[in-house]
Design brief:
The protein is 15% helix and 31% strand. It contains three helices and eleven strands; from the N terminus they run E-E-H-H-H-E-E-E-E-E-E-E-E-E. The longest helix is centred in the first third of the chain and has 9 residues. By secondary structure, the chain is of the alpha+beta class. The N and C termini lie far apart (36 Å).
Length: 156
């Protein structure tokens, strides 16, 4: 690998074509080729983040996480939710009532025939989950997240 064509972005060291893709995406975006995503992520993370899969309910250790901290995208480490917004929804997936500012992007998903609002990481486009209108105050929203699509960073 040619070190002079390497750059550090969001805590990751990129080389060659990865550098060009990251630079072309701009300072607020993080894009990799499909092959590079497969190298970076576990097969289960790849299925959820890049193929919009869903992990089995109750399978994430983050369901039981109660410490103060931040939940970030497992693909690019962008902070998505504060632990203060997490609540127990009873669904089997980590759930939040409010995302951090500018952290997510949404679109309509018709995969289940009935339209749902799907949300992704605003930086890398990694699929996180779906948002529903049955959450608690203050928003009334339930951001139902795949735990495998997140990493948890405990507060100091």
């Amino acid at each position: 690998m040619n070190r002079r064509h390497a750059m550090k972005i969001f805590g990751f060291t990129l080389f060659g074509s990865q550098v060009a893709a990251a630079q072309a995406a701009g300072p607020d975006k993080f894009q990799l080729s499909d092959a590079d995503w497969k190298k970076r992520l576990s097969p289960a993370q790849y299925e959820v983040l890049r193929r919009e899969g869903t992990e089995p309910p109750g399978s994430s250790a983050l369901n039981a996480e109660k410490r103060a901290g931040v939940y970030a995208c497992a693909g690019c480490q962008l902070p998505l939710f504060s632990s203060a917004a997490k609540y127990e929804s009873g669904t089997g997936w980590p759930s939040f009532h409010t995302p951090l500012a500018n952290a997510i992007a949404t679109r309509t998903d018709f995969k289940m025939v009935i339209p749902r609002t799907e949300y992704h990481c605003a930086r890398c486009g990694g699929h996180q989950g779906h948002v529903f209108n049955d959450g608690p105050a203050p928003t009334g929203k339930r951001y139902c997240n795949n735990g495998i699509a997140l990493t948890f960073v405990a507060a100091a």
